Amino acid sequence: MAVDGDAGIFLLLGRLLFGLTLAFMGLNHFLNLEQMTGYAEFKGLPAPGFMTIASGVMLVLGGLGIAAGAYPVLSAGTLAVFNFVAAFTMHAFWSVPEDQQQDEMTQFLKNMVITGGALAFLAIGGQDWAYAVGVSLF
């Protein structure tokens, strides 16, 4: 079943907002590599430099894939997994001092919302998307 017509326009707008925002977030990993690596180290991630670069690549490629409609299942799946894992490893609000809990909870919930959006794109990833590059593994 193809997603086209008015639904196709709304899907395109949603893909652009969702995908390009995430790609920009990934680009931020590279533009602020030292700060992002320090934060990952502070959070206790192993190989924080590598993890910062790897997560930046996942966000950039996944976001651009959703925006362009290229490899939508792979792109959406990557974003869903990354954001779900990041929510629990980077923003465990229940394990920080009380004065940090609200900020961490906001970031945790942001990651969960992104996970939900990525899962929605994953659910429709096998369909033909209007205004899409149209390359796919599935």
UniProtKB/TrEMBL annotation:
Coiled coil: none annotated. InterPro entries: DoxX. It comes from the Archaea. It is a multi-pass membrane protein. Keywords: Membrane, Transmembrane, Transmembrane helix. Its main location: membrane. It is found in: Membrane. GO terms for cellular component: membrane. The chain crosses the membrane at residues 12-33, 45-67, 73-96, 108-132. This is DoxX family protein.
